[in-house]
TrEMBL record:
It holds the Pfam family MerR_1. InterPro entries: DNA-bd_dom_put_sf, MerR-type_HTH_dom, MerR_fam. Gene3D superfamilies: 1.10.1660.10. Residues 163-172 have a biased composition (Acidic residues). Residues 79-106 form a coiled coil. The keyword Cell division does not apply. This is MerR family transcriptional regulator.
Length: 242
């Protein structure tokens, strides 16, 4: 006497869908069929599904189980690999819990790491600056991220910075040049007191990709007049430092 697909699923604590999927991916051989056309599973199938269930409960993927085959009932290397993967997962989840505790206790945003989340809660940022800060959280490495957060905390409430946030895309050249000139000194002083390390030193993306990502973000978040002001600002700062 054998078992139907439903009975096999019930015996093994799995689902009809799972059993059918095991067939589809080649983990479980097709059984013989009864005279009425229904599948009839035997003990071999039962043992196989129980083994698959046991291994998936431990954390193995179906692809990993397939690689193991049936010969080795103690796949030491696979077990050690899985153990290392689980250790990394546990560490990641522990870090996530620490961050969640900070978010809950300090009411910080969920889309930023703790360093920048605390800043975003206390510093008034324009919509574009806020979005750019999210991008920077990915571009910067640990050291640079902390330096960037420290810099944001000390951004002076200078009228020119507010004017920059409100600058229309059709601002004329004299307005853009005048704004860049007035932003130069407070910007230079801020950089001098809070230098951000070179992107190439610790960016997880590398210098090239980090620069490209920042450039793309700036072009999409700021209008053409603001971009022009930023270019002019660099020239004005160099004049002050000369």
């Amino acid at each position: 006497m054998g078992w139907s697909t439903r009975q096999l699923a019930e015996l093994t604590g799995t689902t009809l869908r799972a059993v059918r999927h095991y067939h589809e991916v080649g983990l479980l051989e097709e059984p013989e069929r009864r005279a009425n056309g229904y599948k009839q599973y035997g003990v071999t199938h039962l043992v196989r599904v129980l083994r698959i269930k046991r291994l998936t409960d431990l954390g193995f993927s179906l692809a990993q189980i397939q690689d193991m085959g049936d010969a080795d009932d103690h796949p030491e290397q696979a077990l050690r690999t899985l153990d290392a993967e689980l250790a990394e997962t546990i560490e990641r989840l522990q870090r996530a819990r620490v961050e969640l505790a900070l978010i809950l206790n300090q009411s910080t945003p969920t889309d930023l790491p703790p360093e920048l989340g605390q800043v975003a809660r206390t510093v008034e940022l324009s919509e574009a600056d806020r979005a750019f800060t999210v991008v920077m959280s990915r571009v910067l490495g640990t050291q640079s991220l902390q330096a960037y957060a420290d810099m944001l905390r000390e951004v002076p409430k200078h009228p020119s910075f507010t004017e920059f946030d409100d600058l229309p895309a059709d601002a004329d050249e004299s307005t853009r040049q005048d704004l860049a000139a007035r932003m130069a000194e407070p910007s230079r002083a801020l950089r001098a007191s809070h230098p951000v390390p070179d992107l190439g030193t610790d960016s997880p993306l590398g210098r090239k990709r980090a620069g490209e990502t920042m450039g793309t973000a700036m072009r999409e978040l700021y209008n053409r007049a603001q971009i022009d002001v930023l270019i002019r600002l660099e020239a004005e700062i160099k004049k002050l430092e000369a």
